[in-house]
Structure formats: C-alpha cells, structure tokens
Amino acid sequence: MRLLALATAIALTSGIAQAADSPAEAQALDIAKRAIAFRSVAGPGNQTPQLAAYLKTQLVAGGFKDEDVTITPVDDTAYLIARYPGKNAKAKPLVISGHIDVVEAKPADWQRDPFTAVVENGYLYGRGATDMKLDAAIVIAALVELKRQGFVPARDIILEFSGDEETAMKTSALIAEQLKNAELVINIDGGGGALDEKTGKPLYLTWQGAEKTYADFQLSVTNAGGHSSAPRKDNAIVQLSRALERIGAYQFTPELNDLTRGYFTSAAKYEDAATGAAMRAFAANPADKTAIATLTANPSMVGQIGTTCVATMVNGGHALNALPQRATANINCRIFPGHQPAAIMAELQKVAAEPAVRFKDVTEGAVPNDASPLRADFVTAVTKAMAPIYPGVPIFPGMSAGASDSMWFRYHHVPSYGASPVFIKGSDNFSHGLNERTPVANIAPALQYYRSLFTSLSK
Fold it and tell me: Which of UniProt's keywords are assigned here (predicted)?
C-alpha cells in the first residue's frame, strides 16, 4: 500500500524537487496516524489534552524549546500554543491556526475503527484524516524541517491548536483574545483544492477570506391556554406557524463581495452549464432574477449569494387536550459578511408579521465577523507557494458558509485566511461523516507549500 501511495504522490506532484519519501513526509504521516488514535471528542473520555501533550513532544523533539510550547487546560479539553522565535520580537507575529478536536464517530457505524488510522489504496482513513489532523501533522513536520534547515524568521511564527472548534469554541475565543496583536492568521482548517473526479488531477485551489456569521434566534408565543373543547383564535401554535411559514418563504436580498465575485467568476467553468452561466450572470449583476433562481435552487450555491435563515427546531403545547400555553421555534441563520445579527433579527420580525411572536438572540459560541481584506502579500505568497507544485492550477478566493476559528480573529479585526493546500475529490470528502479519508499523496506537496508560505509571510 505504501508503494502505491508513493507512486500516486509522485504522479500527482509532477516535477517536485523534494523526494516523495523525505523524512518530513514520513514524520507527517506518522504524526497524523498517531493523532487519529486519540479520541479527541468533547465529553467523557475526551483525549484532546493527551493529544496536545503528544504534539508538544514532537515539536520539542524537532527543535522547539520546552518553554515555548504551552498547553492550557480548559474544562475537559485544552489548547496548545507554540512559538517559533523570530529576529524581531517586537514585530507582529504570523499565526498558524488549527484545531485538534474532532466530531464524534461511532465505531459501529464505520467500515474501519475511526480512531485507528489506516493507509489503504493511497488514502489515510480515520476521524480527522480530513478535518484536520493530517493538516496539523503536515504543518508540524514543515515547521520542524524549517528548524532543521536553520531558518530564522524575521517575525515570530505562532502555531496554535484549539481544543473545541467542533463544539463550543471556548478555546478558540481564548486563543484569539491572546493573539489579537497578530499581523495575519493562516488558518489551515479552511480553503483547499479540488481534484477532477475522473482524472484525479488538480482543478483549482481556493483560499478562504470570509465566512458567514452564525446566529440562532428563538421565536416564542405564550398565551393563557385553556380547554381544547373551547378553542380561541389566539392559539400559540397557529400564531407561531404563520410566522414560520412567512420566514420560510422569504429570501434575503442577494449580494456580492469581492471574494464571492472572484469565486463565481473563476469557479463557473467547473460547474454544469446552467449553474456556471448563473454564476457568471450573478457576478455581473447580483439583481439578475434568472441567475438568482438558479443559484437559490442549488444547495451548494444558495449560501454563497446572501444571508440564509431556516427553521431548525420547534416545540409547542403541554397536553393533548389543552390549548397550548407556549410554542417555540429556533431559526438558524448564516449571515453574509457586513451584517450584524441584530439587524437580521429585526428583518425577520418584520417578515414574520405576527405581533404575538417574540424574538430573542440565543446564539452561543459565535461572534459577528467581516471579510478579511484582499491582502496582496498573502495572495502573492500563496501563488508563489503553489506555482512549482501545480503549475498553472487556478487559485481564487472563496467564502465559507460554515464557521471556523477564523471567526474569532476577524472579530478582533485580525486578517485571517483559510489556506490549506490539501486537494480532494468532492466524492471523497467525508469530513464529519462516515469513513473519513484523504489522499496521502497530498503530504509531499503540502510540505513544500507550507515551507514556502511560512517563509514568505514571516519576512
């Protein structure tokens, strides 16, 4: 299996000077396999602190001073911060951001034990193979190799791994508060490349410069209730239902920013003809009704054209033979950058048009954040890092509809960019799902990419 993986790596990375079976590559794969074995899942038996301790041993063995790698316990988890000292301690640091916790995985549902790493047919299998223990391992190996080569950055490089990114993001917030003086953040848990489904060749790489703000709004109606044999018009369930129906039919005004315009323009040719035409038309005119209708009907595109809000939970009544005294629902919103949750909630109240329905922001573990600027130094560094690995492969920006640790840095007005170099087929993306896997052929080119990127941006 190892020979097949190496052959795939050589074919995929066509012409890379570094040998595919370098010590750094072997180290990255070994760290990833060992990291997957830790059940770093929130709740009883959470092994995130133990995983952080293991990763510290790898950093210290690779040249980091023991005192420069700290592990901070938080509830049942922990976070790690490692400092790679630069020449100018007063310069704002370059931060490399990731997380080492994973979502739950039940072994009975998987074809293989999710917490026993397996390399098979050129893939690394296991929970975290994609999100994101392999990326973490590659970055550690890349930094250790830079240490081994004697590289001294002009500014400090800070590597940080949060311990609850998949759940409460408490450690994520603490880290961002601690590192809010950063020059910029490279989030290795965002962006990435797409492989052609038929040929397996790289199609394009996207870097993430924005993500939508997460928000939960609780809708509630209360009234006196009473006996079901004597119904009244002020029925809490009916009133709430009318509000939910109106919200469900509502579409926020579609909009663009520089990142999404660049994405639609560049990615259109990789979609089917109708979707691609709609993407180009929307990029040219975000009021194009035909384009909006096409993109709205596509689940992978509707989140890219504006704010979305959807009912996710509902509860009402207290007895089968009584009028409901209370009915509640949750509306989950993913808010387009540039808008505050309070403004979106106010817009939903107008749409609901039910005076009896009360709205409350019940969001936990999220803060509003705007898009990061299109920094020329970052774009240049990514382009430079990718050029010798995948010559001619297009690189363009994107926006995530989900949430990552970048949110907390952007909240503090620190530019943060998802910049993972891992390429994967859409059909192979099982992040958060069953039988998670990632091609091991990514390791060698990713090491070269990260070394170049960190060197360029730490000057």
Answer: Hydrolase, Metal-binding, Protease, Signal, Zinc
- Summarize pLDDT for 101-130 with one digit per residue, the tens: 999 999 999 999 999 999 999 999 999 999
Task: Quote the pLDDT of residue 21.
Answer: 58
Residue-wise pLDDT for 351-368, tens only, equals: 999 999 999 999 998 999
* Residue range 249-264: mean pLDDT, rounded: 96
Looking at the structure, do residues 204 and 228 belong to the same domain, yes or no? no
Q: What is the 3-state secondary structure (H, E, C) of the chain?
A: CHHHHHHHHHHHCCCCCCCCCCHHHHHHHHHHHHHHCCCCCCCCCCCHHHHHHHHHHHHHHCCCCHHHEEEEEECCEEEEEEEECCCCCCCCCEEEEEECCCCCCCHHHCCCCCCCCEEECCEEECCCCCCCHHHHHHHHHHHHHHHHCCCCCCCCEEEEEECCCCCCCHHHHHHHHHCCCCCEEEECCCCEEEECCCCCCEEEEEEEEEECEEEEEEEEEECCCEECCCCCCCCHHHHHHHHHHHHHCCCCCCCCCHHHHHHHHHHHHHCCHHHHHHHHHHHHCCCCHHHHHHHHCCCCCHHHCCCEEEEEEEEECCCCCEECCEEEEEEEEEECCCCCHHHHHHHHHHHHCCCCCEEEECCCCCCCCCCCCCCHHHHHHHHHHHCCCCCCCCEEEEEECCCCCHHHHHHCCCCEEECCCCEECHHHCCCCCCCCEEEHHHHHHHHHHHHHHHHHHCC
pLDDT of residue 3: 35
The CATH number given to whatever domain includes residue 315 is 3.30.70.360
